[in-house]
């Protein structure tokens, strides 16, 4: 890999030329059934042929550099083919989470200024309605369509796509309520693939032979940048699942011949909950790549299933510019250790005043790329938010908002999140975003949202509600159900409250801002009380 490709499409074409008969994409029986498609294994050569046909179609439609096209395609084969085809023309893609609802879709379409959207059939109407509300007259096209309508909006730049051309716009939850759009260049994705293929140790990738299975959605950087680019740049095979199915996980792993698995922190505990079997080690997996495994489950999982879970740390914003992974011994299993930074990553751990903290003392993690370009491998910017971009880079380091500590040997240990983000089953949920929706419910006078511990999902969403009118205790369940139903109409199911607690007041500061620290303390005490309604059973993915 001495000749470094400039773009994702160039990387794919290079591998297709080198290993045309190698499998690129494999869809298991279960995922095929979930998507109502045929289970397939597509080679690099076959995929390239399909991609070239899409490139011609998009070129004829007027797609080009400076355009953005939304992709609501889940983890279907179409996502990979269309995203690479668009990248060939310098068109950026905006992956759209299929769980998003009305208000979220309207914001994303308007904020990204996408010029078109590709979608699965049952979401076309939702996208059309959201685009109309956002004032965007854009084509909404089914992925199965055989033609693509002309793009009514001219390109904003010209020239051949290169390393700095925008490749994707990924939205990530933040503390300001609305998701931030992270502008990611081709260089971001290519470096992610190069990093994964070169990091070595327990995380070594074999050229042309690995098969990587992931249940993570392609709207996240882990699946889109690390999993996919690692396989593209090594000639390996990506096995995307529709989602994580605990009961059939090992069946999918064995059927796919996976040698690498990507995991969320909630997965090991759920898999350990199954009855032990003589088949527990009957697989070809060499290692798992992920984050957030419960310290109590880490050693037990490795002993039972026979491969290491390599804990890593990264953010959408940091990409491969500051990724850290425990890929070499000692890994300090069961301690929340995520490894020791490589020489390419510069790290500081500071207190609230910006003072460096000694070993063993927790502080905020600040990161940058070592060398002349501290931004190498990072996101380009938060779209339309120069102030937030500047604030994130105060002092020349990216401020992660994560609290960690370091030991005397330089190993890093995750402690907590400073940002006001609820982490549920691997999804980042902005409390402010949920609050802004719940305040629109006619019965809600005030609301504050906080995380509460959940043994399976890590965190669950709890909404503290001050009702406009007093209600008898017997009517609280119906009111809580109404509030959750309203939330489910406007937000992804996982953002809806799993608990609704009715209070006389929420804790506020002297300036009438929510007192987050006190709220989180209070929230932990509420589940199980009469005024706190358990609504977790109402949270269901749309079918």
Question: Which helices and strands occur, and which strands form pairs?
Answer:
Layout: H1 8-18, E1 23-26, H2 29-35, E2 41-43, H3 44-61, E3 68-72, H4 77-88, E4 92-95, H5 102-112, E5 116-119, H6 124-133, E6 140-142, E7 166-172, E8 180-185, H7 186-198, E9 211-214, H8 221-234, E10 237-240, H9 249-256, E11 260-264, H10 266-272, E12 287-291, H11 295-305, E13 309-313, E14 324-325, E15 345-350, E16 363-369, E17 381-382, H12 386-392, E18 398-406, E19 412-417, E20 421-424, E21 427-430, H13 431-438, E22 444-454, E23 458-467, H14 476-490, E24 499-502, H15 516-525, E25 532-534
Parallel strand pairs: 3-4, 3-5, 5-6, 9-10, 9-11, 11-12, 12-13, 23-24
Antiparallel strand pairs: 1-2, 7-8, 8-17, 13-14, 15-16, 16-18, 18-19, 20-21, 22-23, 24-25
Helix pairs in contact: 1-3, 1-4, 1-8, 3-4, 5-6, 7-8, 10-11
Describe this structure in words.
- This protein is an alpha/beta fold and 543 residues long.
- It folds into two domains: 8-403, ANL, N-terminal domain (Rossmann fold); 422-538, ANL, C-terminal domain (GMP Synthetase, Chain A, domain 3, 2-Layer Sandwich).
- Helices cover 30% and strands 23% of the residues.
- It is built from 15 helices and 25 strands.
- It has helices at 8-18, 29-35, 44-61, 77-88, 102-112, 124-133, 186-198, 221-234, 249-256, 266-272, 295-305, 386-392, 431-438, 476-490, 516-525, and strands at residues 23-26, 41-43, 68-72, 92-95, 116-119, 140-142, 166-172, 180-185, 211-214, 237-240, 260-264, 287-291, 309-313, 324-325, 345-350, 363-369, 381-382, 398-406, 412-417, 421-424, 427-430, 444-454, 458-467, 499-502, 532-534.
- The strands form seven sheets. The protein has a six-stranded mixed beta sheet, sandwiched between helices. Strands 4-3-5-6 form a four-stranded parallel beta sheet, with helices on both faces.
- β23 (458-467), α14 and β24 (499-502) form a beta-alpha-beta unit.
- α10 (266-272) packs across α11.
- The chain is globular, with a radius of gyration of 23 Å.
